[in-house]
Amino acid sequence: xxxxxxxxxxxxxxxxxxxxxxxxxxxxxxxxxxxxxxxxxxxxxxxxxxxxxxxxxxxxxxxxxxxxxxxxxxxxxxxxxxxxxxxxxxxxxxxxxxxxxxxxxxxxxxxxxxxxxxxxxxxxxxxxxxxxxxxxxxxxxxxxxxxxxxxxxxxxxxxxxxxxxxxxxxxxxxxxxxxxxxxxxxxxxxxxxxxxxxxxxxxxxxxxxxxxxxxxxxxxxxxxxxxxxxxxxxxxxxxxxxxxxxxxxxxxxxxxxxxxxxxxxxxxxxxxxxxxxxxxxxxxxxxxxxxxxxxxxxxxxxxxxxxxxxxxxxxxxxxxxxxxxxxxxxxxxxxxxxxxxxxxxxxxxxxxxxxxxxxxxxxxxxxxxxxxxxxxxxxxxxxxxxxxxxxxxxxxxxxxxxxxxxxxxxxxxxxxxxxxxxxxxxxxx
Length: 429
Description:
Layout: H1 6-63, H2 67-77, H3 81-117, H4 124-149, H5 153-161, H6 163-174, H7 181-208, H8 223-250, H9 253-268, H10 271-289, H11 293-320, H12 322-327, H13 337-347, H14 349-352, H15 356-362, H16 366-391, H17 393-419
Helix pairs in contact: 1-3, 1-4, 1-5, 1-6, 1-7, 1-10, 2-3, 2-4, 2-8, 2-10, 3-4, 4-5, 4-7, 6-7, 8-16, 8-17, 9-13, 10-11, 10-15, 13-17, 15-16, 15-17, 16-17
């Protein structure tokens, strides 16, 4: 429902709040998993588990070939039973090829990576089990996008953010025999596979309830639009770890630890934009497919108002009491208060610009988003090299804040140029 009336806007607000709560629930499930792993495996064991699961997650991201947003756009554009099923099959088939390739590579190189790169032979089995998890993990994310495009927000969000982590934690709690490094990795594989099976069944149920096709429908291109979105994702991943690596080369370990905590706290605010994307993505795709410029504008602009409203309390805390937030991690972390303020300034542009990235993606301008992301990634790397040797952790925070803001402002400029919509929180002319 586009926000043409107060009732429509209230519905979008309600859905956005519910999506935010689901995302928070997903974050809590990951926290529960981290706690259970720490108790079951200890620091060293949980660290090796995260090495294996992170390798699998990275390959699942690459193997999806950027099809997440493309699948949502294609399904939302023509939500009829036959058209959706054809697009869904094609997307999952393409992704299976990429994911399968990643899984084979991880399996082949599992032993040398475990023994030669990390010096932990016991990491071999977790890496093998992680390789088996790559395909269901990647397909699980695509099923989540399909469910959200079909209006199954709760099922899609649970599939993407909560079920696998929660299932792994439950298995470790109820099956004592899994409380080892290999056992925890097996639990992760079982939880991911079961989550995918559940999401696939929910998709099938939703697809069968759609109206029949009124005529033949062509399958829109998928791989071509997906690759720019894959580039956007990879640049975002690079920006998330490059600052820590550069800082580690110039600053004491304690500074790196404080900075890492500050960046993770600031990045949590992005959960609002993820929630908005779940709600507004299908709405924007439908408006763009119908060539309804007025509905596209209303929907996009509504995401700004809701983003600012939902994010305001969190950012108020980060700006006004960053030291108190960091003190929750220990007294020594309070020194990172200036870092958290600077980072929050950069991340504040995320809700202030609404679902601008989703607007570009759903209107077919994903290449503009890729160019903006690449430029911001280069800027991030250059600023880190210049500022970190001089200002240490504060320089890293400044570089990251500027780069995060550059992504959003660049996307705002691209959206204004391509679809004539100003994605900033003031009245558009």
